[in-house]
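User: Sequence in, structure out. Go.
Assistant: Echoing your sequence, followed by the structure tokens.
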Amino acid sequence: MQSSSNAAEDPFDEGGRSILRQPLSVWATAGAAVVAFMGIGLVDPILPSIAKGLEATPSQVSLLFTSYFLITAFAMLVTGFVSSRTGGRRTLLAGLALVVVFAALSGTSTSVGELAGFRAGWGLGNALFVSTSLAVIVGAAAGGSAAAILLYESALGLGMACGPLLGAVLGDMEWRYPFFGTAALMAIGFVAITAFLKEQPRPARKTSLLDPVKALGHGGLASAAASAFFYNYAFFTVLAFTPFVLALTPYTSGAVFFAWGVLLAVFSVLVAPRLQKRFGSLKVLGGSLMLFAADLLALGYGGHTTAVVCTILSGAFIGVNNTVYTELALGVSDAPRPVASAGYNFVRWFAAAAAPYLAPRIEEWTDPHIPFVVAAAAAVAGAGVVAVRRRSLTLTPEGPVPEHQREDAAAAAIQPA
């Protein structure tokens, strides 16, 4: 399978014009997206501090991720339904408002159960925002959809890199402060979007609650979602379980995950498109998943220094995988992009909820190595799905855009793969 023609172009030049020349509405949305993605990795450096402050076990603290992503998964069935009726701007503002409220409430928690509950509300707000933000950027950005996707991927990488830093700096003073800090930043994003973003045109075709599930009837999309499910289990084993294994101070852990996020951003935006152009998307994805599996085994069985290096290195494989899965989710079926993305994300986010819950329990039942063995096996399973279903995972040919996709172009939505 060949990658799209955009992969061959300079990633910072679209049609001879720098993609950095964007209206304020785009920068306001992209800036808020950075903060939204920061919220995913925000708690990484302070997981041990939260466990200590709330007198909770690692498996109990893992519920912060589980509740967040479980709600996110189910919210995928709702976001398209809401945004196609209320409009992108109102959906963004509703999501931001929920994040502000529940992030602030998270900082007031007196038990891990309370905190997990508030994180669930945070997950709903983040789902509404993140699933709509690319649609808004596509509608407002100069340079076309390729430029918009690149800006979105850059926001993802920057947010994933900076989240651990913010968590480390504020969390070193008090574990509650990162939550208050996120609430403040998202409130600024709310004001910026209110001031600079005008309402985008609503799609002519409204999305029903069952449309994303029906879209999974397409063999290619179902295969992409199944492979991404296994990959996400491995991904979030690194994100949610590794901080307990490394046992670093908040500052050191923040630095490790910052370096991890930088690699994720660089390989997602700069390296993956070049690899796709040279080798084809499916070969790149299969190879990256197998290398990720090897990295997880080294992380689990190596010494402490090896574990730190492999944690950082995993960001490179995750960045490549994110980019290729994004392309597959949006191009492997003829479903409208918001609908295909919602169905795909509905499946894969369940793995993001499962991994933080299962990994510490597997350690309790066995030893610290086995959670990484399971994660490595999941990555191999993802590569196996790609190999077995490679014919179904061929992107739809370049050509005229179907009528329903033209109508929904302004509402194209995507989650971080």
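User: And one key feature?
Assistant: DSSP finds 16 helices and two strands in the chain.
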